[in-house]
Amino acid sequence: MTELPVHHEPPIYRRIADRLRDEILSGVLRDGDRLPGENAIMAEYGIARATARQALAVLINEGLAVPRRGSGVYVRLFRPIRRHGSRRLSREQWGQGRAIWDSDTRGRPYTVDEVRIERVPASEQVARLLDSDEVWVRRRRYSVDGRPVQLAVSHFPADLVEGTAVTLPDTGPGGAYARLGDLGYSPVHFTEEVRARMPQPSEARLLDMPPGTPLIVVARIAYAGGGVPVEFNEMTLDAASYVLQYDFDA
Amino acid sequence: MTELPVHHEPPIYRRIADRLRDEILSGVLRDGDRLPGENAIMAEYGIARATARQALAVLINEGLAVPRRGSGVYVRLFRPIRRHGSRRLSREQWGQGRAIWDSDTRGRPYTVDEVRIERVPASEQVARLLDSDEVWVRRRRYSVDGRPVQLAVSHFPADLVEGTAVTLPDTGPGGAYARLGDLGYSPVHFTEEVRARMPQPSEARLLDMPPGTPLIVVARIAYAGGGVPVEFNEMTLDAASYVLQYDFDA
Fold first, then answer.
1. How would you classify the pairing of strands B242-249 and B81-84?
2. Domain B81-245 annotated CATH 3.40.50.10860
3. Which PROSITE patterns does UniProt cross-reference here (chains A, B) (predicted)?
4. Which of A83, A100, A222, B141 lies at a 20 to 30 A Cα distance from B155?
5. Residues B65-120: pLDDT tens digits?
């Protein structure tokens, strides 16, 4: 690939975003302040609405501002959902509950929709991870406050869970992990791998994400005693809605 | 904010990206295959170089393809650096080293540049996290294979580390944590918070990131015995270069 051309002057929406960013980072605009609206920016710079919107989108995508429906764009107020990777070593034991980033800890209720459950041949990757050529797959989408925030696709070794409630829409009290426990395969260890990337169009659509916003992808394997893998779960999170917390000893 | 306009037909670069994505996801193009070059795309669609480049950038940003300098754009080959959040519960004990995503495990050597060390008043956030109004700050940039991949900014309570090698460019054998140990404050517990967002221009410049590529931000507190916080480290990672691994028990 040839090198990108040198830009002598950034486009106007970039320069507007740069000015607003400076005001946020220097403290002229503070947490919770409303940014100038599209109409005000259009009038001040003599530009089209789409350009004004692009300027505001830059700051939203950088996590410095958030839109509120029908009200405008506000400085940060990043109040993501806190997802605990490990509950056993909980923060309560350490640092008197010192959180690095603010988050909404009042466990906002999830709603689950788009549940789809099927028995299918495993992909090459899943077959390797679960030692199983066929899998029961549970796909669902989680929403909080009416906004979709997470897609999750769980895979279980088909022969292990066949005929149990893991294959039904309602997995019963305690959920799928309790059903694995009924079989003598309670998960006792987890490994999670975390990456971030831009969404594919189908993911952006399912999660109703604004353009230019990244995803966090968490892939988890649950192991029962003896190192038997009993679940592979791929979770796709709207990055603007989450902070992941992990606690561990040295 | 008003709603975005309905697009009846996506722009040409999107349609080219959609076609290439379909070929990747359906297996017509396979891991390691070279994508059509800018010149080929320009000729086939009768478009400008910038538009062809935009189409390829979409796939790069989605993590489906990677550019190789002077050679073209290739299907995926996502071989990130694996960062272990917890070494104690290492994967070797579980799942026979089953990795979910491929990564380069031959510990490629890091080089460190741009080290800056200073004693400064703590920000409000850092003062709260470290129970200290002044901090020694170590800023550095890590590169792998000549490419910058991570910015890290460590904060230590100033009075705790004053006069030790933690305040020097060379922290000595075992690094800053060993020096904390010399003082009787070995880190024994860690909490990490992980989020993803788009980079600010200064971050994209320091990490030499292509436009539209997200960051992973890892914020970590190290605690000594008794729950005393001894370090706050904010790490900013090029998301295309990393997979984070966490292992924990149920």
1. parallel
2. no
3. HTH_GNTR (PS50949)
4. A83
5. 888 777 889 987 556 788 887 765 444 555 555 676 666 655 667 888 878 999 99
